[in-house]
Amino acid sequence: MLPGVVAGACITFSTLLGELSTTIILYSARWKTMTVAIYEYLIADLLGQASALGTLLTVVVLASMLLANKLLGRTLGSLFRMV
Q: pTM above 0.85?
């Protein structure tokens, strides 16, 4: 079981590094990504606003996945099938 946990941790860490570099590139004084805004709301103890942005982000990602699958003629379940 330990090799699976280590592999999962490595994949998560590499994904986090990719997200971090994207956030650093896109962040400016005028613009900030939703993930940065959510983090700032959490630090400021504004849980309602952080939850609202998190919910909005989840809905946007899910809707875009559903739209892409519809345009490609696939079902959402095909994303989760093991080959």
A: no
